């Protein structure tokens, strides 16, 4: 079904409406820790942002195209049953989450809207605030534990001076949809989550065309609103972007919590709080690395496991799943986002292969 990903609007809706997901099968090219199994859970064109409904009956899937999909879930087995186009005709439908009433809120490229169960749209934040620019225009958005709606607004360039709300994470009060800047200096975050203590962590992608090994992709911690995370002046733990290295004054900058390798494309993050994985996985953060596009030797194409974020020691990172990048350089998939099913299994979206995987712990030898 990869060919469907290049189309949008009515054409997609005509061909995939009420289509059943693919029969479950294990992608044997992927490598996981002992006791874990992975299967293709559903085929969804351009699958990126994943949001499960509170009742566990539906999974909403955002894309970088014009549509949001909805997958029906069997609540006994948590298998995918069928999917359809929930809403089409949107302006980059990547930033999605469900509000307290169970309605979908979408941060489009140029505005924020609410879509009810019948597909009716209410405009919450009209055009004018969000930069309507395609470069890094695929928003990531999520309701926080405080009930506010957070939206990442990427810089509309590779490395440049930003204006207005460009290069920030915004916080919207759902009572009146007024905004404040929650974080500055964020080049392009496409993933954030809160741990059990309500502390926000977010990924950020470093600039391109500075070589294979700089700047690093980042995992940052946000302990208070209004801090500056460096872009476009500083990356990582104090490196200077050459375009601004002679600037006399720059804002006070928060160094990264974790530096990933350059160009891994760190996107979705999920703090695991389910019951399917072994007990010591509770509170572990998983980060999807979609993979490089402009590195001599490709890197990324994997899921990272981050431990120790809640302790006073140095966080530890290691590969949890890889194999989407083969030794000969062939790409078999590009993971984007993560979401837990009510049974504690973990879903992973892949917009390259147009699939959603399901990871479970069985304890079996593999």
Condensed summary:
This protein has 366 residues and is mostly beta strands. It is built from one helix and 27 strands. It has one helix spanning 9-16; strands at 36-43, 50-52, 58-61, 68-73, 80-87, 95-98, 104-107, 112-115, 121-125, 140-143, 149-153, 168-172, 179-184, 192-194, 200-204, 218-222, 227-228, 234-235, 239-240, 258-259, 266-271, 285-289, 302-307, 316-321, 335-340, 346-350, 355-361.
Query: What is the CATH H-level superfamily?
Result: TolB, C-terminal domain
Domains counted in the coordinates: how many?
Answer: 1
The CATH architecture can be given as 6 Propeller
CATH top level class name: Mainly Beta
Protein model, in words:
- The chain is mainly β and 366 residues long.
- The protein has a single domain, classed as TolB, C-terminal domain (Neuraminidase, 6 Propeller).
- The protein has 1 helix and 27 strands.
- The strands form 7 sheets. Strands 10-11-12-13-17 form a 5-stranded mixed beta sheet, with no helix packed on it. It has a 4-stranded antiparallel beta sheet with strand order 1-27-26-25, with no helix packed on it. Strands 2-3-4-5 form a 4-stranded antiparallel beta sheet.
- Strand 7 and strand 8 form a beta hairpin.
- It is globular, with a radius of gyration of 19 Å.
- The N terminus is likely disordered.
Q: What topology does this entry show?
A:
Elements: H1 9-16, E1 36-43, E2 50-52, E3 58-61, E4 68-73, E5 80-87, E6 95-98, E7 104-107, E8 112-115, E9 121-125, E10 140-143, E11 149-153, E12 168-172, E13 179-184, E14 192-194, E15 200-204, E16 218-222, E17 227-228, E18 234-235, E19 239-240, E20 258-259, E21 266-271, E22 285-289, E23 302-307, E24 316-321, E25 335-340, E26 346-350, E27 355-361
Parallel strand pairs: 13-17
Antiparallel strand pairs: 1-27, 2-3, 3-4, 4-5, 6-7, 7-8, 8-9, 10-11, 11-12, 12-13, 14-15, 15-16, 16-20, 18-19, 21-22, 22-23, 23-24, 25-26, 26-27
């Amino acid at each position: 079904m990869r060919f469907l990903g290049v189309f949008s609007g009515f054409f997609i809706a005509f061909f995939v409406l009420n289509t059943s997901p693919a029969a479950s099968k294990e992608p044997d090219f992927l490598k996981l820790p002992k006791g874990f199994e992975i299967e293709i859970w559903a085929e969804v064109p351009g699958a990126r942002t994943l949001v499960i409904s509170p009742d566990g009956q539906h999974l909403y899937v955002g894309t970088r195209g014009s549509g949001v999909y909805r997958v029906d879930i069997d609540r006994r087995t948590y298998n995918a049953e069928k999917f359809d186009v929930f809403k089409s005709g949107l302006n980059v439908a990547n930033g999605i989450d469900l509000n307290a009433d169970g309605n979908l809120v979408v941060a489009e490229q140029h505005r924020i809207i609410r879509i009810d169960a019948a597909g009716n749209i209410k405009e919450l934040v009209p055009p004018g605030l969000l930069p309507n620019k395609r470069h890094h225009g695929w928003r990531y958005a999520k309701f926080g534990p405080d009930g506010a709606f957070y939206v990442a607004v990427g810089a509309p360039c590779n490395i440049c001076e930003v204006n207005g709300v460009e290069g920030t994470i915004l916080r919207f009060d759902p009572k009146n949809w007024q905004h404040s800047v929650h974080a500055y200096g964020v080049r392009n975050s496409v993933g954030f989550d809160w741990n059990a203590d309500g502390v926000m962590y977010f990924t950020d992608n470093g600039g391109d065309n500075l070589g294979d090994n700089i700047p690093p992709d980042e995992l940052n911690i946000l302990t208070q609103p209004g801090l500056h995370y460096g872009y476009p002046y500083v990356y990582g733990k104090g490196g200077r972007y050459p375009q601004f290295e002679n600037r006399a004054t720059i804002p006070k900058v928060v160094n990264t919590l974790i530096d990933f390798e350059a160009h891994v494309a760190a996107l979705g993050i999920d703090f695991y709080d389910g019951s399917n994985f072994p007990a010591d996985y509770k509170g572990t953060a998983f980060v999807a690395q979609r993979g490089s596009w402009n590195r001599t030797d490709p890197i990324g194409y994997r899921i990272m496991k981050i431990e120790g974020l809640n302790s006073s020691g140095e966080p530890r990172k290691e590969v949890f799943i890889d194999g989407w990048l083969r030794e000969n350089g062939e790409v078999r998939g590009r993971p984007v986002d993560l979401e837990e099913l009510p049974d504690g299994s973990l879903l992973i979206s892949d917009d390259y292969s147009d699939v959603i995987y399901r990871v479970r712990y069985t304890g079996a030898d593999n």
